[in-house]
Fold:
Amino acid sequence: MVAAAAEVKLLGMWASPSVRRVEWGLQMKGIEYEYVEEDLANKSAALLRHNPVHKQVPVLLHGDRAVTDSLLILEYIDETWLGMPLLPRDPYRRASARFWAKFAEENCREATKKAFFERGEERSEAIEQLREQLQRLDEELEGKKFFGGVEIGFADLAVGWMAFWLGVSEEVAGFTVVDAKKLPRFAEWMDDFLRVPVIRDNLPPREKTVEFFRYYRDQQLAAAAAAAK
Structure:
């Protein structure tokens, strides 16, 4: 068994929403950790050794243990360290938080990716799917400030990438899905989430992030076009 006091490191990449999600959780729990920036174009031996399956960030190193996948990392730190709970202790509310986390990760993120990269009919369909999914999230927020209630929790951290990176995606790829008139609760949640100090103080610079994702999108589209020839 690894003691909670064992050394903690986080292998990450500055623009990754999944990495930031883990940092939010670590800081909410008051966990001291060392952050190690990875060059994903030239992955370190440590990253390849500790995440040999996906070879991606984030990777949490706790003593001699390596934990991958940002949502699993959040659950690991919540169960390993005391402090502010990320997941509700009530079984029903805990299951609900996991449901919305999975919904955002599997549905909203995939639709955003297609809206970001695809063109034509596939892009239009993805944008419409994303609007419908955001409507579901808006309905879930009825009567609540956060998905976790009065304070942010696991579901908020899981959905939280949309509060910042969805706007970046809209700007870079030229589409709009967040309409405050149609999604009033979700739009308000985005503003409230970004005002939470641990979130606000741990976001990448917006213009730098826009530039990075514009470059990344251009590179991916160029590679896809070359492969199609």
Observations:
- The chain has ten helices and four strands.
- The two ends are 54 Å apart (CA to CA).
